[in-house]
Design a protein that fits this description.
Blueprint: H1 15-33, H2 87-90, H3 113-132, H4 139-159, H5 164-182, H6 189-213, H7 220-262, H8 275-288
Helix pairs in contact: 1-3, 1-4, 3-4, 4-5, 4-8, 5-6, 5-7, 6-7, 7-8
């Protein structure tokens, strides 16, 4: 559970300025992170026959014969952009705000939902941090959860994919930030760190077992994302909190899916992303700082 410390934020009249500053920061960061969304396309279906394909353009190489996710590509020239090596090109001295492709120099657009949602969630995070008097070492880890969770959710909603480069980077940064949070001098951070690691393993194994039982009903990307959701939920609310967060993710996923089926906006054979619900239930658990039980 997130606990206050000697460096805790002071509630009161600072709430409104903190919400404003964090909201603006979230919009600005979301504009940069939103450029990740157009780079990732859907997973290529496995071809039924081995037929050579003539590329449509010289910069669009033929897909490999086995299915799989394509690499990050510029939405304009379709050139591959190694991740995260392309980030300096998008944030270099030639105008990082424009996000120019290093090959064609065209601007890579940010998905409009990412700055809006990131700004809103950053503002809510700032308000919760002030009201609950979070330790300052806890705040960066939660902001990082929002920063990578929003573009990941948008990519999953668009193309039913949780890109490995983004998920892998999220693990690395989250590990560093959560280590800084649990190793602070005051509080019982080591206990929360141990519960976070146990929860990460437990939730990953749970999702892996579900994937093994029904591979068509759960993507392996969800299994890879499960570890970081268990890590955050276990850090904030313990092992029980991580299990309850996983339950609410599946419950919300099923409820929304049934509503879309009833409205005929979704068919039984049409895939539906679970990743946004996993990240959403995890963020709510972090905000609550306790298992989401009645």
């Amino acid at each position: 559970m997130l606990t206050p410390s000697e460096l805790a934020l002071v509630p009161g009249t600072v709430t409104a300025p903190v919400v404003l500053v964090f909201g603006v920061l979230g919009v600005l960061l979301g504009r940069v992170c939103g450029r990740l969304v157009p780079l990732f396309g859907p997973v290529r279906p496995t071809p039924a026959t081995h037929v050579d394909r003539v590329p449509s353009t010289p910069s669009d190489p033929p897909a490999p014969e086995d299915g799989g996710p394509p690499p990050p590509r510029c939405p304009h020239c379709r050139s591959d952009l190694p991740f995260p090596a392309f980030l300096p090109a998008l944030t270099g001295p030639v105008a990082w705000w424009n996000g120019a492709c290093p090959d064609c120099r065209a601007t890579i657009p940010a998905h409009p939902a990412v700055p809006a949602v990131t700004g809103l969630l950053f503002a809510i995070t700032g308000a919760v941090a002030v009201q609950q008097q979070w330790a300052l070492t806890d705040l960066p880890a939660v902001l990082w959860l929002v920063a990578f969770g929003v573009p990941l959710s948008v990519v999953d909603l668009r193309v039913m994919r949780l890109p490995d480069p983004v998920v892998g980077t999220a693990y690395l940064v989250a590990g560093v930030l959560l280590a800084a949070a649990v190793l602070r001098p005051a509080g019982d951070g080591l206990q929360h760190g141990a519960e976070a690691l146990v929860s990460m393993v437990l939730i990953t194994v749970l999702y892996w077992l579900l994937w093994r039982v029904q591979p068509s009903g759960l993507g392996f990307g969800d299994v890879k994302l499960a570890g970081i959701t268990g890590l955050y939920a276990g850090w904030a609310a313990g092992v029980v909190g991580a299990l309850v967060a996983a339950f609410w993710a599946f419950a919300a996923f099923s409820l929304v899916g049934m509503v879309l089926l009833a409205l005929r906006r979704l068919t039984r054979r049409q895939p539906f992303p679970l990743g946004p619900f996993m990240l959403g239930s995890t963020l709510l658990t972090v905000f609550a700082g306790a298992p989401l039980l009645p």
